[in-house]
Design goal:
- By secondary structure, this protein is of the alpha/beta class.
- The chain has 19 helices and 14 strands.
- The longest helix has about 40 residues, at about 110-150.
- The two termini are about 20 Å apart.
- It comes from Pelomonas aquatica.
Length: about 450
């Protein structure tokens, strides 16, 4: 909304500002008195107000301007206001800036500085409105998800996770196999628990088995159980995971590590619901929802013969792709606070470090970093050094290599004459992204 309201009793000032702003494609309306200005605010939307501080001849106290400022704030609390005057005491202007005025410029003003300030404030207002709309839409979607489904204790704030869970919620009720893909440590088991919690079998057991953590010769016994004496050391009969999960959900993690012999038997039980314990000829029946997960490329394994194609399609009726933590950075701080559980507090520099880190180990790495820091800080403040992250740089800034440094942001702003949109283009960022970095680095355009 590139529309500005100018409230000044001097006709020359209003005309000069209107002309100056029009040269930069900014529409301006001029009011000659506080009453006229407040009336205009009621008739049309404005993105910014430039107001004088004195309106009565021979008055320099600024009291009229302060009254106008407070009246505008009462009507439009989020509307940025620039104070413009040649006479007001500096302490009065500073007090209003502390009360929420966007800036204070003295007459005669510097055209370049005024235009840059106006453009930045208009862009900031537009960015804030867009961000607020996105946040509200996200809140509404999350609230709708929570009304429809049991979130199973999941902590998230990113659109990526919201999209994934909305899809998972849609398929949870259908008793079909689901393949959850994603990198190690990203939270695939948590997603599986969400699917189980919202399935028809939610009252049944949720049994998890990491297929990559067991020797190949024990996989069959783990899945299907064994009778006494079935193998060396089997002193008594043992219930397998399929039996234990009967009436519930069986989660098979690292399914790509299942040997071919185990794949054949798994395919049979998925197709028929029947299996035999190791060392037994008795056929048993089970009713189990199977969820599987992998960080491997199963399609490539099918092509090389390392994974059965028929089993792949049996497991992969629906695929849920869990992105790495680096692609859902909005989840980083909520997860970190969740893992910290109030035992200490993060310094602002530690928050910057958490957001800038690449997280190759995903949520598991984040949890370990927070647990380590919580132990070392002994209930105090957590600093970047206590997190033990590797991407520290010589200037003390913790950042991703793709992240513009504070110096780079300052230089881009200087080259752009203080106009945020131009600096954002130079840095290859959106305006909203650059505003987030300005806030993070404590930079005022």
């Amino acid at each position: 909304m590139r529309r500005v309201l100018i409230i000044d009793d001097h006709p020359g000032v209003g005309q000069a500002l209107e002309l100056l702003l029009s040269l930069h494609d900014i529409e301006a309306s001029v009011a000659a008195s506080p009453a006229e200005g407040l009336a205009l605010l009621e008739t049309r939307p404005f993105g910014l107000v430039i107001q004088d501080m004195n309106f009565t001849a021979d008055t320099t106290s600024g009291e009229e301007g302060e009254a106008l400022f407070r009246a505008i704030r009462a009507k439009r609390p989020d509307l940025p206001i620039i104070l413009l005057t040649a006479w007001t005491r500096l302490d009065a202007a500073v007090a209003l800036v502390k009360a929420g005025a966007a800036d204070y410029l003295a007459k005669p003003w510097d055209d370049a500085k005024l235009v840059a300030t106006v453009e930045n404030l208009l862009e900031l207002g537009e960015a804030n409105r867009e961000i607020a709309q996105l946040r509200e839409a996200r809140r509404e979607r999350r609230a709708a998800l929570a009304r429809r489904h049991d979130l199973a204790g999941l902590v998230f704030a990113s659109d990526a996770m919201l999209n994934l869970l909305e899809l998972a919620g849609q398929i949870a009720a259908a008793p079909v196999p689901v393949l959850i893909t994603g990198p190690n440590g990203a939270g695939k088991e948590c997603v599986a628990a969400f699917v189980h919690a919202n399935s028809a079998a939610h009252d049944g057991p949720f049994v998890a088995l990491n297929c990559g953590a067991l020797p190949a010769d024990l996989i069959e016994a783990e899945l299907f159980g064994s009778d006494s004496g079935a193998y060396t050391g089997a002193a008594k009969a043992r219930v397998g995971r399929f039996e234990a999960a009967d009436g519930g959900t069986l989660f098979l993690d690292e399914i790509g590590n299942l040997p071919l012999a185990g794949q054949v038997k798994l395919l049979r039980v998925l197709e028929t619901g029947q299996f035999e314990r190791l060392g037994s000829s008795k056929t048993r029946h089970t009713r189990v929802r199977v969820l599987s997960a992998t960080n491997a490329d199963l399609r490539a394994m099918v092509r090389t013969g390392a994974f059965r194609e028929d089993l792949f399609y049996r497991l992969n009726l629906i695929e849920l792709k869990l992105p790495p933590l680096a692609e859902r950075r909005d989840d980083v701080l909520p997860l970190a606070e969740h893992f910290l559980a109030g035992r200490a507090r993060f310094a602002e520099t530690a928050r910057e470090a958490l957001l800038a880190h690449r997280w190759p180990g995903n949520v598991r790495e984040l949890k370990n970093a927070v647990e380590r820091a919580a132990l070392l800080c002994q209930g105090g403040e957590i600093t970047p050094a206590l997190l033990g992250l590797e991407e520290a740089h010589g200037n003390g800034a913790w950042r991703n290599l793709d992240e513009p440094s504070r110096d780079a942001v300052v230089a881009a702003l200087a080259a752009a004459g203080g106009v945020v949109s131009r600096a954002a283009t130079q840095l290859g960022l959106s305006r909203q992204a650059l505003y987030r970095r300005l806030e993070r680095y404590g930079i005022t355009p």
